[in-house]
Amino acid sequence: MRDELAGFTIGVTADRRRDELAMLLQRRGARVVVAPALRIVPLTDDTDLRAATRACLEHPPHVLMADTGIGMRGWLEAAEGWGLAAPLRAVLAQAYAVARGPKARSALRAFGLRHRWSPESESWEEVVDHLVRHGVAGRVVAMQLHGDRQPECRAALERAGATVIEVPVYRWAPPTDPAPLHRLIDLVAGRLVDAVTFTSAPAAEALLHAAGDRAETVLAALRSDVLAGCVGAVTAEPLVRRGVPVSAPSRARLGALVRTIVDELPRRTVSVRAGGHLLTLRGHAAVVDGELRHLAPAPMAVLRALAAAPGRVFSRATLLRTLPRGADEHAVEMAVARLRAGLRAPRVVQTVIKRGYRLRID
């Protein structure tokens, strides 16, 4: 078991693979806050999906655009339930199949369908550009949708002369219990998490939508103190468009996303020598001479304030502003006492009589 992320708190907004992602982060020592921003609603009994399947049988597509693995599997499983799987597979086998990413490729192979091309960027735009160059005039294109419709992509194909059959396999919906998401929004706004992970662009949009009038506060945190970790460039797009610097792996995989966070978060730590010790500040903990010391929010807030200007004296009134609302100057004294006890290094924080506190810089 590795502990590269020990002392850090990370939010997980994924739904379908949240347990897998949370486990990967926890195995590296992170404290994880699971708060799905959306949930996937299958449309196996949906009339639109059945109508799209009938359209593909009546007008066999020349091109198949496979967007997601779960979507392709859901479509063919629904067709199986309607007794249409064999004829659907037969017409799709004749199509020029393009897959947006590796999961869609795997789903095509699992159902005996031949994959012809995939974009390196895993973006719809590159798929559409490829098909337009390939030539789609007078051809039927079956577009398996990823939760939401893709009007720009459809319009570009139709301008190139294609007839597009949209295949809506599932849709996004708000989480059944919104409380964890709103708690995560509180933590992000208060800069009480170190990173938030996103595995889909709609999840990023949903978190900001759920934030309501606090969306700008959340964005300000993501632009500064809270790392936005995205599984790929497509997922990152809504945040990038709003000026959020994101960290994303070159290949859209959960494992690669975790490795990116493992590389990035420790770089954002603050280290200082004080009272004969080397301190490194992590999200909710301090590393003292290589030993992890978990701290409560109030002592951690005081330590962060002191470490922001090592050696400077901070008055009780100044430190009070770092604590939760409603605290008084006595709470500052308690937080300092708890900080010294938690660090197990009492000489690190020095009391300056009638003035306040500072880190005892070596």
Number of strands: 18
Q: Bin the helical content.
A: 40-55%
Radius of gyration: 26 Å
Subunit organisation of the chains? single chain
Which CATH architecture of the largest domain would you pick?
A: 3-Layer(aba) Sandwich
Chain-averaged pLDDT: 92
User: From the helix content, strand content and strand pairing, which structural class follows?
Assistant: alpha/beta
**Given the C-alpha coordinates, what overall shape results?**
elongated
Describe the protein.
With 362 residues, the protein is α/β, with parallel strands linked by helices. The protein folds into three domains: 124 residues, 3-Layer(aba) Sandwich (Rossmann fold), CATH 3.40.50.10090; 132 residues, Rossmann fold, CATH 3.40.50; 90 residues, Winged helix-like DNA-binding domain superfamily/Winged helix DNA-binding domain (Arc Repressor Mutant, subunit A), CATH 1.10.10.10. The protein is 43% helix and 20% strand. The strands form five sheets. It has a five-stranded parallel sheet with strand order 2-1-10-11-12, with helices on both faces. The chain has a five-stranded parallel sheet with strand order 6-5-4-7-8, sandwiched between helices. A four-stranded antiparallel sheet has the order 13-14-15-16, with helices on one face. Helix 7 links the parallel strand 7 and strand 8. Helix 3 runs parallel beside helix 5. The two termini are 34 Å apart.
